[in-house]
Specification:
The chain is of the alpha/beta class. 45% of the residues lie in helices and 12% in strands. Helix 1 crosses helix 2 and helix 8 packs across helix 10. The longest helix is centred in the middle third of the chain and has 19 residues. It is globular, with a radius of gyration of 21 Å. It starts with a helix and ends in a 16-residue tail after the last strand. About 7% of the residues have low confidence.
């Protein structure tokens, strides 16, 4: 009799204390190779995220995305075409003891060697009423760049995935009045020679969740002071624009199964001749600048 997926998942859960790391690694190589690892490798190659001699700080928050990213990097390093180094970096911005212990436990059973350092970001933003999450994210990134540089790294890797990208596109349009996206890699403006990369850029969140549940793993969800109640095991999401955008995408997908792919492709297929205005390197350009310079009608027009 064939072993069902549910039985396999149960076995993985029961055996987590004994051999979690090999089980997790095998699942990435086999069951989730196409949906996760191949897309991870594809993003790295397509967007030229790695070069020989790189030392990458893999930034781990304790959530499912960054933990999976760490394991994918380990797998990639085993089959690498060129030499690169990894440092698995955890910044503790003021986690409570339960959350710190969960990060340490997951890293241990998954065989991820952590470098942990402290900051007091949660205390710093506790009394900020306007955009505390934005400020927290910016402060986190600054601390991560600084520590990564101290460790001799030239890149930091963050665990943003495909769904984060398309949600960011819609959030920019609906709430920010602009067309922009979360880029697959960026040069740091404050730390010379440092880059930020997002290797899970093409990986779907549903596949990450499937990988987590298949292996019987439990990770932090949200561990800041504002939403600590949902940190472990509680699926209630705080009210947010991102949650609303998730719902909008799910609703639109009911009639158009290609909606997510179309949103993603929209920022790859921008036609500047049909855009009223755009910014490049901080300079705003308007279509009227060159409107009267056209000598022939646009294709498809009379």
């Amino acid at each position: 009799m064939a072993v069902t997926e549910a039985t396999e998942a149960t076995n993985a859960t029961n055996a987590i204390e004994g051999y979690c790391a090999p089980q997790v690694e095998l699942s990435i190589r086999k069951k989730f190779h196409k949906s996760i690892f191949s897309k991870f490798a594809k993003a790295i190659n397509a967007y030229e995220m790695l070069s020989p001699g790189d030392r990458v700080a893999v930034c781990i928050s304790g959530g499912k995305d960054s933990m999976l990213m760490a394991k994918c990097f380990q797998e990639l390093q085993r089959h690498r075409k060129f030499a690169f180094e990894l440092a698995f970096l955890v910044m503790d911005p003021g986690y409570n003891e339960k959350n710190r212990d969960m990060i340490a436990y997951n890293a241990k059973i998954m065989d991820i060697p952590l470098t942990v350092f402290q900051s007091q970001i949660f205390d710093a933003v506790d009394h900020i009423e306007k955009s505390p999450c934005y400020l927290c994210a910016r402060m986190r990134r600054g601390y991560l760049y600084s520590k990564a540089s101290e460790l001799g790294c030239n890149k930091i890797a963050l665990g943003h995935h495909y769904d984060d990208v398309i949600e960011t596109i819609l959030m920019g349009m609906l709430y920010g009045g602009q067309i922009q996206t979360m880029m697959p890699k960026l040069h740091s403006t404050n730390f010379e020679g440092m880059e930020l990369i997002r290797p899970l850029y093409l990986v779907r969140e549903a596949d990450i969740e499937h990988w987590r549940d298949y292996n019987g793993l439990q990770f932090l969800r949200c561990a800041c002071h504002f939403t600590e109640a949902c940190a472990v095991g509680d699926d209630k999401e705080t009210t947010s624009r991102r949650r609303d955008v998730k719902r909008l995408i799910a609703y639109l997908k009911e009639d158009n199964p290609y909606i997510e792919g179309n949103i993603f492709k929209s920022v790859e297929n921008v036609n500047l001749s049909t855009v009223i205005a755009y910014k490049k390197d901080g300079v705003r350009h308007h279509f009227l600048e060159n409107y009267d310079k056209k000598t022939a009608p646009e294709s498809g027009e009379p």
